[in-house]
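Onboarding guide, step 5: your first structure request.
Type a short instruction followed by the sequence, for example:

Predict the 3D structure of this protein.
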Amino acid sequence: MCHRVREPRELSDVLSAHSAEERFEAKKSEHYFEVELSGVAESGADFLRGDLMEEYLSQVVPVAFDAQRFWYAKKITDWASNAGLELPQVTVIIRGDTERQVFKPYKNHYKTRHKGKEFPFDIEDVIFWPENPGPASPYWIWYGKTPLLGAILDEQAAGFRLRRSNMAIGTSEPARELFAATGVDALTPSNKRFNDWYVGEIHVQSPDVVPNARRDGFEDNAAWMSLKADLGTFFKQRVGETRALSRDRNRPTAKVIAAAKSTLDRTKRQLTSGLASKEQREELVEKVDKEEKKLTKALEARQSEADVELLEPIHRELLAVRETLERTDSFALKKLRSSLDRKQRNLLKRVLGILHNVLDEENFDKAQDAILSHFEVSEL
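The system replies with structure tokens like these:
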């Protein structure tokens, strides 16, 4: 709509009137396009903010996963490739004061909130649905396996997202509506909230399911109605597992086990990639000891033999990993490639030590993984 004359105009006409296009010859393997914004009015200032542009583009355009932040990136792309599924990708670079590549917003670590407190958790694996899709399948899904502790505190990633040719169709709202449609006889709006407990993507492949003009959903044709009915089975299962886990988690035993497993997972990852310093080892020993004491108390106050069967294996695992920490010499610097001299190794040791002291667990893990991967640490 033109603001001055209040007459509808085609978007293509508006763009043509306020843009210029230049074309240059390039090799097919090097082709790209570049967008340069100039003379942007104050009302459009957000277009000049790289952080906001990245936040939007990371959710919408068909960019790659960030393998440094999301360990299951390769598992998803390999699975899709082996199944003959298309997952188109483009490379998007935002240039301003700095240059930054845009990736999808998925990562390993998230947080949820319960009774005013934040609780961290990890993506434990990724799950695919259906098990054996192919190029002719109407859709395929991947989603993160998590403890389902509650709504994920990350608006960019929380919730299933629908995509067509790896382009986003709306935000998380279309999937929220699919959760709402899982009631027995009618819509159940309260089920919408369960979408925010997950991270994942629904890739629609059916050529008969057509995005609407706003690209915030699909046209209500027969193909989309049929696909929604098919997806209903999947979403009913997610509602069922979420409610069941929520009930189980209200038992004291489940809460103790969840916290212990989180500490075990992080400690094992650090032992595999290599510890940054002796200080980090001491910190991990302290955390393992803390969880071991909680588990011991839970065993003493056990409510049933079933609780014992759940608690004892985790307790043994905590004791074993603590023993490994005490005697390990698995430090990251010993795994660096042999071409680095002593001065370079000492510098990396100091850098890792400083990062360990100033960053929280999530950001330190990301920084350490990136540094050690760059210097070819084995078994990372």
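Each response can be followed by summary notes, for example: Residues 252-374 form one domain.
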